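In this section we walk through a basic example: taking a raw amino acid sequence and producing a predicted 3D structure, encoded as discrete structure tokens. The instruction is simple. Fold the sequence below.
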Amino acid sequence: MLRTYRDTFSLLGPVLPVVSFLGRLPTAMCQLGSLLLVAETSGSLTTAGLAGGALAAGQTVAGPVIGRLADRRGQRGVVLAASLANAVAVAGLVVAALAQVATGWLCVLGALAGASVPQVGPLARSRSVALARRSGADDRLVGTVLSFEGTLDEVSFVLGPALVGLAAALAHPAAALLLAAALLATCGTAFALHPSATGPTTRTDAAERGRLPSAAYALRAAMVLQGAMFGASQAGITALTEKVGAPEQAGLVYAAMGVMSAAVGLSMAAVPARIGLRTRWRAATGALVVLSVPLLFVDSLPALYGVVTVLGAAYAPHLITVFGLTERTVPASRLAESMAFLTSGVVGGQALALALGGRLADTHDAAAAFAVAVGAAALCVPLAVGSRPRS
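The resulting token sequence is shown next.
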């Protein structure tokens, strides 16, 4: 495994992982940052939720469009334009919130901030896979590249909210979003201009421009359900920590899950190559179901920490395997678009389940929100068993 990771670092070089990580960090900061900023400046959680929902909707809808443009026109120009536009949109949202403009304008600016997200995570994943394939790497190295990229995603989604919380505690939520805008302008630009940026993908025949195989849509649906698990878990964690009188622990509980997921994601490179991706997908899906069921019975903070941390061990294998199956199932001419679809599916599923889970937690209890997560895991089972992606 260590040798495989050495090969991965040799393939990617020292600069690309750094700028891609810092370039994707603002995406993890903006969702929570916008909620905290608008809630503080407007004094209304409803207004904050609307602005945050508009941001998530913009990213969900526009993400695949940016991926398709990157496939057709190359990553450099698309990522450069999106990074600069996103930096301006985020800064504009900060100015508007501080000026206490009307809710409608905040929603418009939130949607623009979401729609202009440069999709550094999905594009870095497709770029790294393309580098590996062009170098003649075997499937094991490609799998390690995907594991590494998945770990960078996990770490960014743990560190991003932590930075927002720290900035809000020490200064103001606006400081976190202004930092995100600065990272977008600098590191997003660096990622766009890096020599590894690909040009337009060459299309060899009409079949590659046509319809995707049905398995690709099953993989996308699985990622929407994975996002629903994230959102419902977040709602349940928030409700339970408030119930036990420790609301400040919610972020730490969620971070513990992310750290476990990142650690297991790195170890995926050690899985023997003879265990195929379809087998891994089914095993990871089964683990999601089995490990999420105890959420229905937790009623204390120590139990919540234990159950959620163990559940995190199933998240990264599922995510990484779905990305790996997608890379082998879709044509190369639609790889960036497909990777962006997967990421947007997670964002969309998370936003919807967070709203539903929050409503259920308010009217019932935390177990009702956790039931949404368990249900989403169960719905992944027929997808993993019934579809036949290329493995």
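Looking at the output, two observations stand out. The chain has a mean pLDDT of 86. DSSP finds 15 helices and no strands in the chain. In the next section we compare this with other chains.
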